[in-house]
């Protein structure tokens, strides 16, 4: 049997659209979510609904862990029977050890894998996967595809309104001063994942309404300056707010395509219920 050319690999922090879920060459490994009494695999034996229920009911915030090196090695051992090589696109290496596990796993399996650091999370990874698959259809060489995707990471933009400051702080993603400022003064921080894949405080705003208006302004400015075809609204169990944000964007930018989706359980552990994220990609003309 002739081997297929490229397998596509990612992790469960990516938002997998139906076409990617149905794609025969796309594989993903779940992030591990650890409560004190149980260990779950994101999206496999723990749904987002179950996670939010537990987060509301329990005092202790769960921890997350990357898929093990062994899990990656097992996956690469399996797919090397069918494919010549793979391209793996993962959550920012500054936010998780997943990329390191993937690299170690492919070395154990002795399989040719181009590992790409998305420098981001969620739909930003989705965009890279879709662009890579399109380049493969055009007959572009695997190393060239990987290099182009690494360049494309610089064109991703995101702004995030956290649903739960307390959760974010206890998860070690925010320092004490920032947490105190946000909690005591009722500041709504806008955070973002920078181009090198780190979380930073972008701006402090007085209310959620003002924060939403601010990120819409940032989108409008980017839309004027760049070629933006689509914006993604990712939410933490707050579909109504996501739809309200979508409607507000449509008032200003009626021609832009809008996708609404859930953040994964492994992201929700840190960001919290009620989180809203706005993501878009600056396309080349």
Briefly, what is this?
The protein has eleven helices and 13 strands.
What does the model show?
This is DegV family protein. Keywords: Lipid-binding. It holds the Pfam family DegV. The chain has 285 residues and is an alpha/beta fold. The chain has two domains: 4-152, Rossmann fold, CATH 3.40.50; 155-281, Hypothetical Protein Tm841, Chain: A,domain 3, CATH 3.30.1180.10. It is built from eleven helices and 13 strands. It has helices at residues 18-22, 48-57, 69-79, 98-109, 123-137, 142-152, 165-170, 176-184, 208-225, 239-252, 265-271, and strands at residues 4-11, 26-29, 32-34, 39-41, 63-65, 83-90, 113-117, 156-161, 188-193, 199-205, 230-235, 257-262, 276-281. The strands form three sheets. A six-stranded mixed sheet has the order 10-9-8-13-11-12, with helices on both faces. A four-stranded parallel sheet has the order 2-1-6-7, sandwiched between helices. The protein has a three-stranded antiparallel sheet with strand order 4-3-5, covered by helices on one side. Helix 3 packs across helix 4 and helix 5 (123-137) packs antiparallel against helix 6. The chain is globular. The mean pLDDT is 90.
């Amino acid at each position: 049997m002739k081997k297929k050319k490229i397998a596509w690999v990612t992790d469960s922090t990516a938002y997998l659209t139906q076409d990617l879920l149905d794609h025969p060459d796309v594989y993903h490994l779940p992030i591990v979510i650890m409560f004190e009494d149980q260990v779950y695999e994101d999206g496999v034996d723990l749904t987002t609904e179950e996670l939010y229920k537990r987060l509301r009911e329990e005092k202790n915030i769960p921890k997350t862990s990357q898929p093990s090196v062994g899990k990656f090695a097992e996956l690469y051992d399996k797919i090397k029977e069918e494919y010549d090589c793979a391209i793996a696109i993962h959550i920012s290496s500054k936010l998780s050890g997943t990329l390191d596990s993937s690299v170690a796993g492919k070395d154990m399996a002795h399989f040719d894998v181009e590992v790409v650091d998305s420098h981001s999370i969620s739909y930003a990874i989705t965009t890279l996967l879709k662009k890579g698959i399109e380049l493969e259809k055009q007959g572009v060489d695997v190393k060239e595809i990987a290099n182009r995707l690494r360049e494309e990471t610089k064109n991703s933009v995101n702004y995030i309104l956290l649903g739960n400051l307390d959760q974010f702080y206890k998860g070690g993603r925010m320092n004490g001063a920032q947490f105190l400022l946000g909690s005591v003064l009722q500041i709504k921080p806008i955070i973002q994942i920078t181009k090198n894949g780190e979380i930073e405080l972008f701006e402090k705003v007085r209310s959620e309404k003002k924060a939403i208006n601010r990120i819409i302004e940032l989108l409008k400015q980017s839309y004027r300056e760049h070629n933006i075809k689509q914006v993604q609204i990712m939410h933490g169990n707050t579909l109504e707010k996501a739809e309200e944000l979508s409607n507000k964007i449509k008032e200003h930018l009626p021609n832009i395509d809008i996708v609404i989706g859930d953040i994964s359980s492994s992201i929700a552990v840190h960001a919290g219920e009620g989180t809203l994220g706005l993501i878009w990609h600056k396309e080349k003309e």
